[in-house]
Design goal:
alpha+beta, two-stranded antiparallel ribbon, 14 helices, about 300 residues, five-stranded antiparallel beta sheet, binds glutamic acid, 7 strands, globular
Length: about 300
């Protein structure tokens, strides 16, 4: 398979087409990004690596971080994690409050804001130095000690993150937040503010394409069974209320973030990251979705 050729062709074609969508303005710092940024990085487990466009430019990974916090909490708690957060698609927007009352404060899954906030609460309870320990974990998975939080982005979101405050306090009132909500939210905003480029993102997620083992050094991050389950959650819940659409059009487990990033894995084959800041009405990168749809169509490789 000539991945280089396929990636270049799709990338160049999409560049010529209209770029649609909006930049999220509810996090003021994110509104400053140029909408024309467009990067792709492909990493095959046999070590073929292909980068296109702005693949070396860092961006805010936002909700993509939720896969990493879920992974860390899964390592710490094992299956007890699922007592605090569910594994069903929510069918609602990423920051929705509506299901929590009926569900008694147990968020539908760890990849919506409510679920990720509960995961932050869990990590606050089990880690000695939560912010340092989580960052160290991400740096380790990425093999890159320069990965860091952006205080600018975290503070920007914190200054106006009213919905997330509402979610956290509401879950607290229902008994599923054990720590001080201020500390939980502070940690949550930090996690979302991590910055990576497409190359780093594809490397970070390659363990999920490789049965839970980092291809770079053979270090196991998750067991095979845990890896299967994390990929299943990405497949069914990774794109908010557009997860069905992403499975239908692309057919890979993955996760998006409002910073315009999408990362996907094809188990036993590759990981791929795409970044383009304009988002569709569901909050997923317009060009990112388009690129990945064309990519799995032309390569005829997807999990389905
Ligand atoms: N920090 C963002 C929020 O909580 C993450 C949303 C996302 O990327 O989907 O609203």
């Amino acid at each position: 398979m000539n991945y280089q050729k396929i990636i270049s062709q799709i990338y160049n074609k999409i560049l010529l087409e209209e770029n649609k969508g909006t930049i999220p303005t509810y996090i003021p710092e994110l509104a400053r990004i140029s909408p024309e940024k467009f990067g792709v990085y492909f990493l095959n487990l046999n070590q073929t690596q292909i980068g296109k466009g702005d693949f070396q430019e860092k961006f805010s990974i936002q909700s993509i971080t939720k896969v990493l916090s879920m992974t860390m909490a899964y390592r710490e708690l094992g299956n007890d994690l699922w007592k605090r957060v569910g594994i069903e698609s929510s069918g609602t927007s990423f920051n929705s409050l509506v299901q929590l009352e009926a569900d008694n404060g147990i968020p539908r899954n760890p990849l919506i804001n409510a679920g990720a906030i509960v995961v932050c609460d869990i990590l606050l309870s089990v880690l000695k130095n939560p912010q340092e320990d989580f960052l160290k974990f991400v740096q380790d998975v990425t093999n890159n000690s320069s990965i860091n939080y952006s205080l600018r982005v975290a503070n920007s979101e914190k200054s106006v993150g009213y919905r997330n405050f509402a979610l956290c306090y509401y879950i607290k009132s229902l008994g599923n937040i054990k720590n001080n909500p201020i500390d939980v939210l502070d940690f949550y905003f930090k996690l979302c503010s991590i910055e990576m480029n497409c190359q780093e993102l594809a490397h970070t997620f390659s363990f999920l394409a490789n049965d839970g083992v980092k291809p770079h050094d053979g270090q196991r991050i998750l067991t095979e069974i845990q890896t299967k389950r994390v990929n299943a959650i990405m497949q069914t819940c990774g794109f908010y209320d557009e997860s069905g659409e992403f499975a239908f059009r692309v057919g890979l487990p993955g996760k998006s973030g409002v910073g315009g990033g999408i990362v996907s894995v094809m188990p036993n084959q590759y990981s791929i990251a795409v970044w383009s800041p304009l988002l569709n009405e569901k909050g997923n990168s317009y060009r990112g979705m388009k690129f990945l749809e064309k990519f799995t169509t032309q390569t005829r490789i997807s999990v389905f």
